[in-house]
From TrEMBL:
Annotated DUF4372 domain residues: 5-64
Source organism of this protein record: Jeotgalibacillus soli
Short name of any one Pfam family annotated for the protein: DUF4372
The name this protein goes by in its record: Transposase
């Protein structure tokens, strides 16, 4: 996830994700074991883009033309519906759960710290 810099809006949205935890989970779950093109990292970025851009379906996603900056950030020139579908079906939801819980823990830590300063 290091190709998207913090200077872009998308980079700022992705930056709170604990990359070390992400890499450990991908290796532990062997999510990229047989992957050639659509890595878990690229897929996660693509899912974030889809959510933020409110893309309606896999067909719409594969039809849309990514801008150059997003293509570089995600690391994909093109994407097919079959690739997306296979990756989505094979994705372990535990990865997303662990990342979500880590983000919540970061929020709690920051909130607690700020509430202690206000006292």
């Amino acid at each position: 996830m290091d190709k998207i810099t913090r200077k872009t809006s998308f980079g700022q949205w992705v930056s709170p994700i604990n990359l070390q935890l992400f890499d450990e989970l991908v290796k532990m779950m062997k999510l990229d074991f047989y992957t050639k093109k659509l890595t878990t990292e690229s897929f996660l970025k693509l899912l974030l883009y889809v959510q933020l851009g409110e893309v309606e379906s896999l067909n719409t996603l594969s039809d849309c033309r990514f801008d150059d900056q997003l293509q570089k950030g995600i690391g994909l020139d093109s994407i097919s519906i079959s690739q997306l579908s296979r990756h989505l079906n094979g994705m372990n939801p535990d990865l997303f759960q662990r990342l979500f819980l880590d983000l919540v823990a970061q929020i709690h830590a920051q909130t607690r710290y700020q509430s202690l300063l206000c006292r």
